[in-house]
Amino acid sequence: MSSNPEGTKRERDGTDQEELPAKPIHGDLAIWGPRIATLGCLGLNLWQAQQIPGPHGVVGVTFPFFGTSSQDRFAAQRMTWTLASPLLIWTIEGYRAANSMTPLALPLAFGVATQVFGIATVAPIYYACSLFTGDVPSADKKVDPLAAMAVLPATIIGHVLPSILMSTLPLTATEVSRSHFTLQSIVCYAFYLSPITVSVLTRGISAGVRWLRRKWHSTSAPVKERTKEQYVQAGLDLPALQASYSMMLVLQAGQQLPGVIEALRILYDVLEPFSWPDRLALLIMNARPGSISHILGTEQEPSFSIGSSLTLFISSTMAFLLYNVWDLRRRGYITNREAVKTALGLSAAPIAPGAAYAGMWLWRENVLCRVR
Hints:
Layout: H1 5-15, H2 28-49, H3 57-62, H4 70-82, H5 84-94, H6 107-117, H7 119-131, H8 145-168, H9 173-178, H10 183-192, H11 194-219, H12 228-233, H13 237-271, H14 276-285, H15 291-296, H16 302-330, H17 336-345, H18 353-370
Helix pairs in contact: 2-7, 2-16, 4-8, 4-13, 4-16, 5-6, 5-8, 5-13, 5-18, 6-7, 6-11, 7-16, 8-10, 8-11, 8-13, 13-18, 16-17, 16-18
């Protein structure tokens, strides 16, 4: 290894294989085999998303809140809560150095597209773009610490709070159409604009904190302020990222708990008239998007469209996360044991996809920091 400190740092960031936890796996097959398989899964999910009936995007998600069906409201509520993790993670990835000059540097565009076309359509496209931006040294995967710190409150204010209000307020079409300034109208517009709000708040909060730090240093004892690059170089982005991912993991897990209970109740109501062998046969034979709605004969109800969209999002997310586990193992950043344990942990994704996404990215950030 070079005795030059900068050379040592450069080797540590991208080329020094002796300090890696495991031996890297080389060869085109190790790179392109899993990548092509993942792209195939994403492409299939994207095609299936176009076959889902009913309105897509924010219209399809918010419409059930104006109705009286508890099943439709439950499906819409779970979808709005789940969207918090992609919104937070995609915003962070937009500030990652490795993603500059790539489509991932435009999280606002993907967020707005999600509101228009739906998460089942946009997620496979985003993940496909991400597959081709990972071949960079780990040093380039750092994030502006102030942006990493600002994205959590921005997501809570811009998306989580409107989602909770959408789920709890008694929304009626009459009240919303009566005026743009009623509480119901404001909540709906806040949810519609949540990707824009999160992006603006993230940039505004980070800029405000940076300005306050400069002002504090100018009025206090002379202390040399670190630049953004120096904060990143010192690894100060990790605590902020860990806090953001951890809090989102807790929020998503807590929000999904009532949903899991409700889903089990609905499943029990559907299968109660059947004997246990018949229940098992129904679950196996109808193990596809919207299977419960198919059993009930409610394929045209909003809950079917939302449930199908959520199922496709979960499928795309699991394929993408499993690919990331393999990619980290291929590079030698993790051991075989770590890869297997993490892959098994992703089995919780169908129950709490947002929590699984945030938890996986928290673990991934720690791995990337370990090999910097």
